[in-house]
Amino acid sequence: MTESAGTGRDAEAVSRFVESFAAQLVEAGMARMPARVFAALLSSDEGSMTSAELGEQLRISPAAVSGAVRYLAQTHMVSREREPGSRRERYRVHGNQWYEALTNREAVIKRWEGALREGVTSLGAGTPAGRRMAETLAFFEFVETEIVEMMERWRVHREKTFGPE
C-alpha cells in the first residue's frame, strides 16, 4: 500500500520519516523502541494511536508497544486515554510534549543539586574534587534558571505563533 488510508500520504515516505526521526532520538540517548513509537505518534494526524495501530505500523509486538509507551508516559512524552465506550487505550502526544518533558526534568535537576551540595560538603570545597562538584552544581543551578526563563519565553512565542491552547 503506497497511500495511508484516506490521508493521501505515501505510507513508505511516512515510514522512512518515522525511522529516520527515531534514529535521531536514539542518537540523542532515547531507547530505540520508545523512539520509534514516539515518532509514529508524532507523525499521525490525530496525534494518537492504539496499541494495535502502533504494532501494525511499526511491525512490533504488543509487548514492545507496552514497554515503549510505559517509558514515554513516565517521561511525560505521551499520555494514555480510554476510547469512549471501549476498554482500548489510545496513546497520545500533545503539542506541548517537549515543554512537559523538559520542565519535568527540573525535579531531576533539583535532586542532582542536592546530591552535589552534599558532595561539596563531603569532599571539601577547597579540594580539587570539591571544586569540580561545586562547578557542576553551579552549572545545574544556571541551567535550572535558564530553563524557567526559556519556558516562559516559549509560552509567549507559542501563543503568538499558534494561538491559545
Fold and architecture overview:
The protein is mainly alpha-helical and 165 residues long. It is built from seven helices and three strands. A three-stranded antiparallel β-sheet has the order 1-3-2. Strand 2 (79-82) and strand 3 form a beta hairpin. The longest helix is centred in the C-terminal third of the chain and has 35 residues, at 128-162. The protein is elongated and about 65 Å long. The chain starts with 10 loop residues before the first helix and ends with a helix.
Which labels suit this protein?
67% helix; 3 strands; single chain; 165 residues
**Helix/strand-derived class?**
mainly alpha
Q: Compute the average pLDDT.
A: 89
Q: Give me the strand/helix succession.
A: HHEHHEEHHH
Largest sheet: 3 strands, antiparallel
The gross shape turns out to be: elongated
Gyration radius, to the nearest Å? 20 Å
Give the amount of beta strand, in percent. Answer: 5-15%
State the end-to-end distance. 36 Å
Strand order of the largest sheet: 1-3-2
Topology, number of strands: 3
Q: Roughly how much helix do the residues carry, as a percent range?
A: 55-70%
Uncertain segments of ≥5 residues (pLDDT<50)?
A: none
What count of helical segments does DSSP give? 7
